[in-house]
Task: inverse folding
């Protein structure tokens, strides 16, 4: 048998076909492998830390203070209210995003007062005069937990200062300065007459002028 007949035999596949099959299969395998690696990297990507907005941080402080305030009155443990408020302040200061730190830094005194008021109001309902009981209860609670209020506020300031609180203060000051400058420019000349030559009033002849 000659070499040409052996090359043209039906049972044999030409070498070019084998090479083309390998070339067609190669990119598919590589794409599948790269797709598997990409999906694996996406599934294994770590999630970012939990961040709160300014309102979210205030809600954390308020909720913790109310819960611990109720427990302190039910269990007759005054220190529990102040400790819970302090813990809530620390958690909120660590989890609030840097852009909203100014709103959180100025809120602890008001949040503490509202949380104390809610806790006293809930535990005083049905015990005689509501107004008198709430007034006495709030004054007593504030007097007993005032050191915790100062501690929580101080910790919020100490934690938020390196996290970007001075930047928020500068941005607020720049905004206020821009608004004040805009108001001064608007109030400097509230009535402006348009006397440009192109205006109809400037082109119209006056009665006292000679032709």
Result:
């Amino acid at each position: 048998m000659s070499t040409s007949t052996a090359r043209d035999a039906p049972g044999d596949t030409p070498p070019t076909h084998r090479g083309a099959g390998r070339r067609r299969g190669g990119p598919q395998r590589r794409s599948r492998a790269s797709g598997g690696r990409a999906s694996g990297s996406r599934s294994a990507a770590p999630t970012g830390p939990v961040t709160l907005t300014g309102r979210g941080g205030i809600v954390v402080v308020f909720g913790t203070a109310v819960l611990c305030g109720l427990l302190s009155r039910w269990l007759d443990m005054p220190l529990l209210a102040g400790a819970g408020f302090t813990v809530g302040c620390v958690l909120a200061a660590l989890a609030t995003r840097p852009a909203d730190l100014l709103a959180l830094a100025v809120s602890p005194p008001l949040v503490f007062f509202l949380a104390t008021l809610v806790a006293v109001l809930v535990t005083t309902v049905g015990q005689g005069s509501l107004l008198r009981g709430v007034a006495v209860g709030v004054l007593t609670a504030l007097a007993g937990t005032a050191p915790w209020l100062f501690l929580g506020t101080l910790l919020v300031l100490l934690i938020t200062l390196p996290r970007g609180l001075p930047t928020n203060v500068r941005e607020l000051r720049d905004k206020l300065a821009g608004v004040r400058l805009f108001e001064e420019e608007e109030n400097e000349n509230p009535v402006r007459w348009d006397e440009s030559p192109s205006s109809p009033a400037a082109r119209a002849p006056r009665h006292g002028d000679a032709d």
